[in-house]
Amino acid sequence: MKKFRSFRLAILIMAVGLVLAACGNSGSNEGSNKGSNQGGENAPAETKAETRMWTDGIGREVEIPVKPQRIITTQYLPEMLALDVKPIGAAKHLLTNFASVEGKIDGVEDLGSVNEFNVEKALVLNPDLIIAMEGNDELISKLSKIAPTVVVKWDQKDAFEHLKDTADVLGIPEKAEKWIADYNQKVEQTKEKLKSVVSPDETFGAVVIGGFKDKQLRVYADQNVGYTLFKALDFPMTDAVKKEWEKEARPLGMDISMEMLPQFASADRLFVVQFDNGPEFLKQVLESSLWKDLPAVKNNKVYTLQNALWFPLDVLSLDQQLDDAVKLLTQ
Question: Same structural domain for residues 122 and 215?
């Protein structure tokens, strides 16, 4: 009987040893494939790469996870939310200055401003991927020591390119394509809704009071604040604004003086963003005879916009601007 028990124990020990050996071999296979895109679709599932090499927006080669789970971003929060991906942490301005993300950011940690980014808190969050924008090499260097850090280029790209670039990094490009297709369909539906409200010969204007400087007055065409009006919904702008943009692209708008209001803000309908960083100047503009004599003001066709919705340049804001345009123009 003792011999039989000893024999059973020996068999059990051998079996455990074989299992541990198999686990060790499996781990070796996964490690050898890490960072490699080789193997193809016919490779066994257990040997496919868990990471891949990525060339980011400033030409850096970064090894990133195929399916990141814990992501931090310094800029691309709206884009991630549009792709149904919620980061674990984001820069403060993304959480406080974007109306489009309201109600969608529960549990996203505030990591401070980009200029005072809380690197220590980012480290504690233990991210497996960080998505940043260009322009702060020191911060990018610090973040790269915490987790793989990919720069998605912001400059000279539109909101839809930002979305597609972010989706590519996350390995879900098809989600970006679907989002854009749905948005384009919504644009057409919005045009139909407004056909009976807006006359085809009515002109539109986009004016921003304040913002970058206390005493600043700007007009926009089909970029930034004016994108939804002039690019998406194809509303006509005034000839004066159109001619200026034909001369030069002005993504940050064109500064004008109050005396130039009759020339560049004489549209039939005015969409106005008001910043409160220069309240005295805002009051001066709105109470001036130059403002009060504008056609849109006289005919009560001035629409005051929420600056946290209409000023950011991201896909979620553009989507919600369509809803807001319908609401404002059908009141």
Answer: no
Vertex 326, ends 96 and 254: CA angle to 5°? Answer: 60
Nearest alpha-carbon partner for 34 in 69, 60, 63, 62? 63
Task: Find the mean pLDDT for residues 224-253.
Answer: 94
Residue 79 lies in a domain: yes
Q: What is the mean pLDDT of residues 269-291?
A: 91
Distance CA 264, CA 267 (A): 8
Contact 107/127 with Cβ under 8 angstroms? no
**Residue 309 structure tokens:** 């919705």
What does the pLDDT read at residue 214?
73
Task: Give the DSSP letter string of 104-116.
Answer: S-TTPEE---STT
Q: Which two tokens stand for residue 171?
A: 């390995």
Q: Quick check: 331 and 197 in contact, CB under 8 A?
A: no
The dihedral built from the CA positions of residue 125, 127, 132 and 136, taken in this order, carries a sign that is positive
Amino acid type, 80: M
Instruction: Give the CATH number of the domain where residue 237 resides.
Output: 3.40.50.1980
